[in-house]
Write a structure and sequence with these properties.
Length: 203
Amino acid sequence: MVCGGFTCSKNCLCALNLLYTLVSLLLIGIAAWGIGFGLISSFRVVGVTIAVGVFLFLIALVGLIGAVKHHQVLLFFYMIILLLVFIVQFSVSCACLALNEEQQSQLLEVGWNNTNSAREDIERNLNCCGFRVFDPNETCFSDCFRSRQCQPCAPIIEEYSGMVLTFVGGIGLFFSFTEILGVWLTYRYRNQKDPRANPSAFL
Protein backbone atom coordinates (compact mmCIF):
# COMPACT_ATOMS: atom_id res chain seq x y z
CA MET A 1 0.00 0.00 0.00
CA VAL A 2 1.46 3.35 -0.99
CA CYS A 3 1.71 6.11 1.61
CA GLY A 4 -1.28 7.93 0.16
CA GLY A 5 -3.56 5.00 0.92
CA PHE A 6 -6.08 4.38 3.67
CA THR A 7 -3.88 2.09 5.76
CA CYS A 8 -0.88 4.41 5.71
CA SER A 9 -2.99 7.42 6.72
CA LYS A 10 -4.50 5.41 9.56
CA ASN A 11 -1.10 4.19 10.81
CA CYS A 12 0.44 7.68 10.63
CA LEU A 13 -2.47 9.15 12.59
CA CYS A 14 -2.25 6.40 15.21
CA ALA A 15 1.53 6.92 15.56
CA LEU A 16 1.06 10.68 15.94
CA ASN A 17 -1.50 10.20 18.70
CA LEU A 18 0.69 7.67 20.46
CA LEU A 19 3.41 10.36 20.46
CA TYR A 20 0.95 12.84 22.01
CA THR A 21 0.02 10.22 24.62
CA LEU A 22 3.66 9.75 25.60
CA VAL A 23 4.19 13.52 25.83
CA SER A 24 1.08 13.93 28.00
CA LEU A 25 2.23 11.16 30.37
CA LEU A 26 5.68 12.77 30.47
CA LEU A 27 4.15 16.13 31.52
CA ILE A 28 2.13 14.48 34.30
CA GLY A 29 5.21 12.51 35.37
CA ILE A 30 7.40 15.63 35.52
CA ALA A 31 4.82 17.38 37.72
CA ALA A 32 4.66 14.36 40.05
CA TRP A 33 8.47 14.14 40.10
CA GLY A 34 8.77 17.84 40.99
CA ILE A 35 6.35 17.40 43.90
CA GLY A 36 8.00 14.18 45.09
CA PHE A 37 11.49 15.68 45.24
CA GLY A 38 10.30 18.98 46.67
CA LEU A 39 11.43 21.00 43.65
CA ILE A 40 7.98 22.50 43.09
CA SER A 41 5.63 23.57 45.88
CA SER A 42 3.42 25.88 43.83
CA PHE A 43 -0.01 24.26 43.42
CA ARG A 44 -0.71 26.58 40.47
CA VAL A 45 2.35 25.45 38.50
CA VAL A 46 1.70 21.77 39.24
CA GLY A 47 -2.01 22.15 38.49
CA VAL A 48 -1.39 23.83 35.14
CA THR A 49 1.19 21.20 34.12
CA ILE A 50 -1.11 18.31 35.06
CA ALA A 51 -4.10 19.99 33.38
CA VAL A 52 -2.13 20.41 30.13
CA GLY A 53 -1.01 16.78 30.33
CA VAL A 54 -4.56 15.49 30.92
CA PHE A 55 -5.95 17.72 28.13
CA LEU A 56 -3.33 16.45 25.68
CA PHE A 57 -4.00 12.86 26.76
CA LEU A 58 -7.75 13.25 26.13
CA ILE A 59 -7.12 14.78 22.69
CA ALA A 60 -4.76 11.92 21.81
CA LEU A 61 -7.31 9.38 23.04
CA VAL A 62 -10.06 10.90 20.88
CA GLY A 63 -7.75 10.92 17.87
CA LEU A 64 -6.61 7.35 18.48
CA ILE A 65 -10.14 5.98 18.82
CA GLY A 66 -11.29 7.97 15.81
CA ALA A 67 -8.38 6.68 13.72
CA VAL A 68 -8.81 3.04 14.71
CA LYS A 69 -12.58 3.02 14.16
CA HIS A 70 -12.57 5.54 11.28
CA HIS A 71 -15.25 7.39 13.27
CA GLN A 72 -16.28 10.49 11.30
CA VAL A 73 -17.66 12.51 14.24
CA LEU A 74 -14.68 11.88 16.54
CA LEU A 75 -12.26 12.67 13.73
CA PHE A 76 -14.09 15.93 12.96
CA PHE A 77 -13.96 17.17 16.57
CA TYR A 78 -10.36 16.00 16.88
CA MET A 79 -9.44 17.97 13.76
CA ILE A 80 -11.14 21.16 15.01
CA ILE A 81 -9.60 20.96 18.51
CA LEU A 82 -6.16 20.23 17.08
CA LEU A 83 -6.45 23.23 14.75
CA LEU A 84 -7.35 25.53 17.68
CA VAL A 85 -4.46 24.15 19.75
CA PHE A 86 -2.12 24.74 16.80
CA ILE A 87 -3.17 28.40 16.53
CA VAL A 88 -2.66 29.04 20.25
CA GLN A 89 0.59 27.10 20.51
CA PHE A 90 2.08 28.63 17.35
CA SER A 91 1.27 32.14 18.62
CA VAL A 92 2.78 31.49 22.07
CA SER A 93 5.90 29.89 20.55
CA CYS A 94 6.48 32.85 18.23
CA ALA A 95 6.00 35.24 21.17
CA CYS A 96 8.60 33.32 23.22
CA LEU A 97 11.12 33.52 20.39
CA ALA A 98 10.41 37.21 19.69
CA LEU A 99 10.90 38.56 23.24
CA ASN A 100 13.97 40.77 23.67
CA GLU A 101 15.98 41.05 26.89
CA GLU A 102 14.03 44.03 28.23
CA GLN A 103 10.68 42.34 27.63
CA GLN A 104 11.97 39.14 29.24
CA SER A 105 13.05 41.11 32.30
CA GLN A 106 9.67 42.81 32.62
CA LEU A 107 7.86 39.49 32.21
CA LEU A 108 10.02 37.86 34.88
CA GLU A 109 9.39 40.71 37.30
CA VAL A 110 5.62 40.48 36.81
CA GLY A 111 5.77 36.74 37.42
CA TRP A 112 7.94 37.25 40.50
CA ASN A 113 5.50 39.73 42.02
CA ASN A 114 2.43 37.56 41.37
CA THR A 115 3.57 34.10 42.50
CA ASN A 116 4.57 33.74 46.15
CA SER A 117 4.98 29.95 46.17
CA ALA A 118 7.05 29.93 42.97
CA ARG A 119 9.19 32.71 44.47
CA GLU A 120 9.93 30.47 47.46
CA ASP A 121 10.99 27.62 45.15
CA ILE A 122 13.29 29.92 43.17
CA GLU A 123 14.94 31.39 46.28
CA ARG A 124 15.45 27.95 47.80
CA ASN A 125 16.78 26.26 44.63
CA LEU A 126 18.93 29.16 43.33
CA ASN A 127 20.12 30.27 46.79
CA CYS A 128 19.21 33.93 46.26
CA CYS A 129 16.92 36.49 47.90
CA GLY A 130 14.80 39.27 46.44
CA PHE A 131 14.42 40.06 42.77
CA ARG A 132 16.47 43.19 42.06
CA VAL A 133 17.78 44.04 45.53
CA PHE A 134 18.49 41.89 48.58
CA ASP A 135 16.60 43.17 51.63
CA PRO A 136 17.65 41.44 54.89
CA ASN A 137 14.40 42.57 56.52
CA GLU A 138 12.25 40.53 54.14
CA THR A 139 11.48 36.85 54.57
CA CYS A 140 13.63 34.57 52.43
CA PHE A 141 13.82 30.77 52.13
CA SER A 142 17.36 30.32 50.84
CA ASP A 143 20.31 29.00 52.85
CA CYS A 144 22.34 32.17 52.31
CA PHE A 145 19.74 34.20 54.24
CA ARG A 146 21.16 32.89 57.53
CA SER A 147 24.41 34.73 56.90
CA ARG A 148 22.59 37.77 55.44
CA GLN A 149 24.88 37.63 52.40
CA CYS A 150 22.66 36.84 49.45
CA GLN A 151 22.65 38.07 45.89
CA PRO A 152 19.39 39.06 44.17
CA CYS A 153 17.65 36.47 42.00
CA ALA A 154 17.14 38.60 38.87
CA PRO A 155 20.70 38.25 37.44
CA ILE A 156 20.64 34.48 37.97
CA ILE A 157 17.19 34.04 36.41
CA GLU A 158 17.92 36.37 33.48
CA GLU A 159 21.08 34.41 32.71
CA TYR A 160 18.98 31.37 31.83
CA SER A 161 15.67 32.96 30.81
CA GLY A 162 16.69 33.61 27.20
CA MET A 163 17.90 30.03 26.77
CA VAL A 164 14.73 28.64 28.38
CA LEU A 165 12.42 30.79 26.24
CA THR A 166 14.31 29.78 23.09
CA PHE A 167 14.05 26.12 24.08
CA VAL A 168 10.34 26.38 24.94
CA GLY A 169 9.61 28.32 21.76
CA GLY A 170 11.51 25.80 19.63
CA ILE A 171 9.75 22.81 21.22
CA GLY A 172 6.41 24.60 20.84
CA LEU A 173 7.07 25.29 17.14
CA PHE A 174 8.05 21.67 16.56
CA PHE A 175 4.85 20.35 18.13
CA SER A 176 2.74 22.99 16.41
CA PHE A 177 3.91 21.65 13.04
CA THR A 178 3.07 18.10 14.14
CA GLU A 179 -0.39 19.39 15.03
CA ILE A 180 -0.98 20.93 11.60
CA LEU A 181 0.29 17.64 10.14
CA GLY A 182 -2.31 15.88 12.31
CA VAL A 183 -5.05 18.20 11.02
CA TRP A 184 -4.06 17.47 7.41
CA LEU A 185 -3.85 13.71 8.02
CA THR A 186 -7.24 13.70 9.75
CA TYR A 187 -8.91 15.67 6.96
CA ARG A 188 -7.45 13.35 4.36
CA TYR A 189 -8.22 10.19 6.34
CA ARG A 190 -11.86 11.19 6.90
CA ASN A 191 -12.42 11.43 3.14
CA GLN A 192 -10.86 8.05 2.38
CA LYS A 193 -12.94 4.91 2.10
CA ASP A 194 -12.00 1.79 4.02
CA PRO A 195 -11.13 -0.81 1.34
CA ARG A 196 -12.26 -3.59 3.71
CA ALA A 197 -15.69 -2.08 4.24
CA ASN A 198 -18.78 -3.59 2.68
CA PRO A 199 -19.43 -1.47 -0.44
CA SER A 200 -23.19 -1.98 -0.04
CA ALA A 201 -23.21 -0.79 3.60
CA PHE A 202 -24.62 2.60 4.50
CA LEU A 203 -21.82 5.07 5.30
